[in-house]
Amino acid sequence: MSGIATTAIVEINQTAGSYQSSIVLHCDSKCIDVKSILGLTLSLIRDKAYRLDVHGPDEAEAKKAMKEIFEKHGLAVQFGV
């Protein structure tokens, strides 16, 4: 397993920060606020699949943007219901 580039972490964090919705990353037994750059730095590993829960007024737009940014950096992501 290898970590991901700092640029990927920053882009994911900045993308999430541009939405009002709550965006929570689930990885193993951890729940991380994607708007927390420290949480992302300690949690993202390239060879894992992640689940994002997105809730809020701009949820649809946030999901689309997060899917695109995760895919851009080769990270597998699914969305909770």
Care to describe what's here?
By secondary structure, this protein is an alpha+beta fold. It has one domain: HPr-like (Histidine-containing Protein, Chain: A), CATH 3.30.1340.10. It contains three helices and four strands. α1 runs antiparallel to α3. 19% of the residues are buried. It has a four-stranded mixed β-sheet, covered by helices on one side.
Layout: helices, strands, pairs:
Layout (H helix, E strand, L loop, with lengths): L5 H12 L4 E6 L2 E4 L3 H7 L5 E7 L3 H14 L3 E4 L2
Parallel strand pairs: 3-4
Antiparallel strand pairs: 1-2, 1-3
Helix pairs in contact: 1-3
Envelope shape:
globular
What count of helical segments does DSSP give? Answer: 3
- The largest beta-sheet arranges its strands as 2-1-3-4
Question: What is the CA-CA span between the terminal residues?
Answer: 28 Å
Residue share in helices? 40-55%
Structure summary, number of beta strands:
4
Rg, rounded, reads: 11 Å
Mean pLDDT: 89
Taken in chain order, the helices and strands follow as HEEHEHE
Structural class: alpha+beta
Q: Which runs of at least 5 residues are low in confidence (pLDDT < 50)? A: none
The CATH architecture classification is 2-Layer Sandwich
Q: Largest beta sheet, briefly? A: 4 strands, mixed
InterPro entries: HPr-like, HPr-like_sf
Protein name: HPr family phosphocarrier protein
Pfam families: PTS-HPr
